[in-house]
Amino acid sequence: MILALRLSFRQWPVVLSFAVLAFVVLLVLAGPGIVPAEVRELAGDPWEPFGAEHLLGTDQLGRDLLARMLEGGRLTLFLASAVAVLSFVVGLAFGLLAAFLGGLMDTVLSRLMDIIMALPPLILAILVIALLGNSMPVLVGVLVVFEAPRVFRLARALAMEIMTEDFVTAARLRGEGIGWILAREIAPNAVVPLVAELAMRFVFALLFLSSLSFLGLGVPPPQADWGGMARENAPALGFGLPAPIVPAAAIAAVALAVNQIADWLVAASGRRAARRG
Amino acid sequence: MTEPLLRIRDLCIQAAGKRGVTELLRGISLDLHAGEVLGLIGESGAGKSTIGLAAMGHIRPGCQAVRGQVLFQGQDLLRASARALRGVRGGGIAYVAQSAAAAFNPSFTLGAQIDEVLRRFDSRGPAQRRQRIIELMGRLGLPDPAGFYDRYPHQVSGGQLQRAMTAMALAPRPKIIVFDEPTTALDVTTQLGVLAAIRQAIRQEQAAALYISHDLAIVSQVAGRIMVLRGGALVEEGPAREVVERPREAYTRSLLQVGTQPASPRDPSPAPPLLTVRGMRAGFGPFRVLHDIDLTVRKGRTLAVVGESGSGKSTLARVIAGLHAAEDGQVVFAGQPLPRALKQRSRDLLRRVQMVFQSADTALNPSQTVGDIIGRPIRFYFNPPRAEVGQRVAALLEAVELAPELADRRPMALSGGQRQRVAIARALAAEPDLILCDEVTSALDPLVGEGVLKLLDRLRRERGVSYLFITHDLGVVRSIADDIVVMERGRIIESGSRDEVLAPPWHPTTEILLASQPSTAAGWLDRALERRNRLLAGDPNPEAAIAPPPLAANLVTP
Amino acid sequence: MTLSRLIARRTIEGIATLAVIAVLLFGGVELIPGDPARTILGQSVTEEAVRNLRVALRLDQPVHERFLSWVEAAAQGDLGTSILNGRPVAPDFAWRAKNTLFLAGYAAAMSIPLSIMLGLLAALYRDRLLDRAISLGSLATISFPEFFVGYVLLTVFALNLGWFPVLSSVTPEMGLAERLSRCFLPAVTLSCLIGAYVLRITRAAVVSILSRPYIEMAELKGASRTAIVLRHALVNAVGPIANVVALALAYMVVGIVVTEVVFTYPGLGQWMVDSVAKHDMNVILVCGLAFGATYVGLNVLADIAAALASPRLRHPR
Hints:
By secondary structure, chain B is an alpha/beta fold. Chain B is 39% helix and 24% strand. Chain C is mainly α.
């Protein structure tokens, strides 16, 4: 990365966040395979508490919760990443298009995005799912529609801001093509805020998706993401058992870690902007 | 001699930054007596603003006074309690900031903000206080003072805000006023009026003042005594006229010489035209910014375009560069018509016209190295072998008097003057015939700017390049121009060779600009005001027309 | 642009957005390929059930007629009947809307004054321990899903300590004190969500204002610390804070749905989610419109609040 992003011990929350994120991602990538097979296949009693045999206890059907968590985590993180990346790409493409073409194209795109952003996302997501059912493509599609406008706004604003900088004007005067200006003049200066935005889109997608699954409108059974597991195991809470808190805590931990990293990136890009000004 | 009002002793202030500790002040001592105006002058980093703030017992966050005292009427403000400081600030020592537009709270009327200070030191009722404020506003030349009291900051002009801030400082009759570059952000003609108003008000209120400026000429007109500062230390100190007329230190002499002489002798021989503009008009939508512009840049010569902000001079440069489309008119460059739009210009045509911008901070991409920045036009236009690019970059850096090792640095690691030199090297890399220079020295300190001007002039002589030089500064014009056009409100009102334009008979606008150009000459301010008021008689522009009544003949009180 | 024109424009835009929501809600069923009634019910149902749903959705009428007759009936207090049990929607809606508003008001009253104060404190003691603690805490709460906060609160305060009931069921006869106690945990859950948001924006707004030259000027004028914070900083922060409060309330529309489900609280959100599983389109429609109108209305209000606080707009040249 162009900018030297330095971490010091003063920023221990950021360091910790990277560690948590790396830990979770590695575990989830390794998958349920790291749980001993005999434990995984053995269906115990429902909602056994934490123990040596089942590290995190068992779920409502007596399955090993850790194995389920790893499986559900893969789905959860994959869906949230897919939504974040898709909405990022769509928003970025349209945002740059609007910034460069300007005129009618810009007006139409900007108005459209304004309208989407004025709509209550969860309410409309519930409506769409009520009408279309809760299949994966519908879920991802709905989330991308609500997330892309935010990326659009940032990308457009960034491009417009950087485009008026004299160094871009100098490149235009030299006769540089749009590709070179984008790749060499604009992109290196927009990387940090854009990465921060990607991180924030991921958190939004993670929380939104989990909420939908928690409401029973997300990932359709028999698959379960963490939000769905928090719902399935909810009755355990009545018996004072922590089974539903485990997946909820996993969501919370990942969301907090990524938010912390995004915050740090935003601050880093802000500092740079301040230095330049 | 009576006890001084303010006595600063051996003041050392440090700033703790990422790269260790920086010394802002290295043992400054000064005395300020009642009724005296002391001028503090220096370039950026001289520590003059730090002294001004410290005089009020204010140290900016991140800074620390490691040694010394600031004694106001015997009380050390650096060690005073917050409560004691509040008693001094406003009523004892008042402050006038450089940017009044930012220093006024946008949510309150000007009158209310002035009264906020006054009420703490004036026991009279609101009606009388209002009377006092309105009277002061009138004395500072503000239009319709009673109505002005209830205006919001965003509703008035920059020059008026600066006058209102002076009124705010004066209102509680402080013993001392600190003026921190109060006219720097203003156009020269506006500056003249504000400066005169400030000087008159100080005298009438019999206040002492610290007057901080980077401009020796300005300070010499208002201050009785001058301290020249550099890098947080004193260079020399003395009565204003003495420092200006018989400077002891070389640094002071070099400051005094800025903008007074040509960078090199002018070549009187005729030169063929390189760029000719005929009947150019341009604007933004319904607003016409340029009307029927005609001008010629001669080969190997410098044409200066002079005007105040809003005269359209920067738009002119953008139109010639192809960044802004003209509505009408033609531009001929090297015998061929120059297409209006950038896209219609051939790569060779683009190469032959280069531009250098006002602020090198934004003109250089912060994510690229100096070598990338200068190397790119070489590759783009000439595409020589890889090794040769590096050699050419090194040669260009040397041509702009920079060390070739700087090629590996990023712009952020360079000083302001170095950055502007890199920007010039980038323009030169294209081996152009014409360079458009848009206020290239206005963001730089005077001496640094002078160095850049000399460099540009040397490059012109050595390489035969021509300049179209946009500036508001007649000092710059005097130093570098062969030919001059003067612009006002989008029109060229006068043009000709440098000697024709700068010598009488003048066009009235040129004469006002010339008269407003600060000078260290004794009595310049009064003569300039008198001359301007004569020229402006009947001019409807209120900002320019309002000037305080003429003063008694005695010009600079020691 | 003058203030009145700006307000008029934002209001019209708000109405237009509501119209988009209405079109989506009413026209949504039109957009589905095939027979929407069958899509909703799935394949394994009788023809009669499909036919009933079509009538209930008024799919036998064109969209605009459907919309007009719905508005006409709604104006007379008739919101249709629940497909599920045939009961009229309106009385249930009124009761549940009241519950939801009560919960939202409860949470807002608890969190907004507190979070503005904490935000202000964090800004005033910027980069000190207090600020770092407040900032980290608020970042955590906006990162946590509502059901996580809800579960933790339930486990600690209802199950282990027994201070509050596990189920937040309320009945129409219930007294205010009882109601406040029953709704406490859901209200705290919601408070965390919007409070953290308000806190962060308040802090950012005040920090940015405190770095303006006019604050340093006020100090040099000899204004007291209190005067600087209350008079110079806060007055200029009113706009951004009012704006974020309205936005936070709008944001609560989203959070309240999940919170009601966590605590099985008889509000609109829980009803709407329940109805999705039961394909009760009339209920979804009514709840969706109510939430949508609140969301859009508060967003418009947020813009107007920001404009009202701007001296440039209040006092044009």
